[in-house]
Task: structure prediction
Amino acid sequence: MARAKPPTTAIATAAKLQLTPQSIERGIDRLQGRIEELEGFDVQTLVEGRSPEITSLEVAIKDTLGRCFGEHTPVFNRFQSAANLQYFSMSLYGNVDYSTPTRRNIANAIALLKQAQRTLREDLADHEHAAKLDTAVTVDNIQRALLRKVFVVHGHDEGARETVARFLMQLGFDPIILHEQANRGGTVMEKIEKHGDVGFAVVLLTPDDEGCVKGGTPEPRARQNVLLELGYFLGRLGRDKVCALKRGTVEIPSDFAGVVWESMEGNSWRQALGRELEAAGHEIDWNKVMRG
Result:
């Protein structure tokens, strides 16, 4: 009766080391050190194919490959023959040429170590590419968040301000209202500049003040700070990203002729504002607009 063969013992394949970019660069430098040591080795020092220097080189090469790739990993196994430098002759006679085959082994080791360097450089390039993608995704996410911010310029009409803010929130935007932001010792314009990194601005023109030319009849007009901020956001964002909503009878300065403005009488301003936001490149859920 035939006996079953005992199972052979195999070395388990390990997972490749996951090195940081700094460790990869250090590994490339270590491999360069081994290459230079091989290039400077004097085969004339061999005695019967052996020397303390070549033994030391074999140990150093195997150690360096282990540090770079991890022992018994597939990539380590591809390059480990670089540590086989000594030539063992099977001849029983004297006058064996150890120099020529050792030079051949050294040349083979140098070629393998250079390929190992290329492998690490490719790993480093992968790290850099991934870092660029992460940066791009982060920048894109930040940009998306900024685009969903809408600055609400307002006067004393708190009802108009809150109505517009709630409508914007309903559509998924983040309304920025200046007086809700911390002062931190800054002026009004400094606060506007700090919080003005937005994708759109809504300016509420409400009859909070009265004014006229000298000797004329006072007429309702928006507060001066509202007109200042209207001009600021027209300059910063462009006319296509600013929408003015007018409530009641309000004088519109001639300098702002051509600025898109919509009446807040009734509910049609919601559709108008939704159209302006959509035209500026924002995604709008029209079901929410119509429910507003």
